[in-house]
Amino acid sequence: MKEALKSQYLWTVFFLGMFLLNYPLMAIYNVDQKLAGIPLLYFSVFSIWVSLIGLTYLVVKKTRTDKNA
């Protein structure tokens, strides 16, 4: 895959993270509920964070060329 496409995918992941971790969406999860003993806000932030790391890993792994592997 070309470097330009890789860059576009990484920018997309970045802006997705900015959108998902922004105040208006985080305010939805700011309630007094717990999921598996963890407050819902903390659980959602951690889940989104891990998902963004996973997406970044997949983009980098998929766009890696054979000579860089």
Automatic annotation (TrEMBL):
<protein>
    <recommendedName>
        <fullName>DUF3311 domain-containing protein</fullName>
    </recommendedName>
</protein>
<keyword id="KW-1133">Transmembrane helix</keyword>
<keyword id="KW-0812">Transmembrane</keyword>
<keyword id="KW-0472">Membrane</keyword>
<feature type="transmembrane region" description="Helical">
    <location>
        <begin position="9"/>
        <end position="29"/>
    </location>
</feature>
<feature type="transmembrane region" description="Helical">
    <location>
        <begin position="41"/>
        <end position="60"/>
    </location>
</feature>
